[in-house]
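User:
Hi there, any thoughts?
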Amino acid sequence: MNAPRLTRRIASACLTVALSATLIACNDEPAEPESTTPLSIETLAAAPPPEDLERTTIALSLDNGESAELAYVVLAPPTDPASTPATTDHTVTVRFAAGLDLGARGVDVYDSTEQRNRTFSFSLADPGVIRGLREAIPGMRPGELRRIEIPWRLAYGENGRGEIPPATDLVFAVELVSID
């Protein structure tokens, strides 16, 4: 077989594979909006935030009379600063990465929308969502990205849950995609 014919057959085979992969990837679900985050959200959760960014803390009262403090850093501003911020009565769609805070050893990411290959939607009033997220997301606008440090008392508590050990602080990177 001569070289030009072989090259055309290889190119044709490559095009067939590429089109097949594209068709397999297509489905009836609407396409996810592109992330405004240039880095992996898992990387952003695992890496310490730059020291020059302002750290916001929120002190919250617990049912037992004690208090706990969560903190966040804005890693990326909203795409439209004039857009309406999320409030506790909204349902939000986010990209996220969640990790166990291992102190000096860093963050061990255990779940993310990258792993799930889809965004995550939930009501900010849903008591099934950990309190730390329900308290840290209001005020965010679409496109905004926060790295949120959640103490165990505002996460899964002294009992833990599944692969999350008891009394474990969590770190989330959350990009707000939309507000409903």
In short: The longest strand covers residues 91-101. Residues 1-32 have pLDDT under 50 and may be disordered.
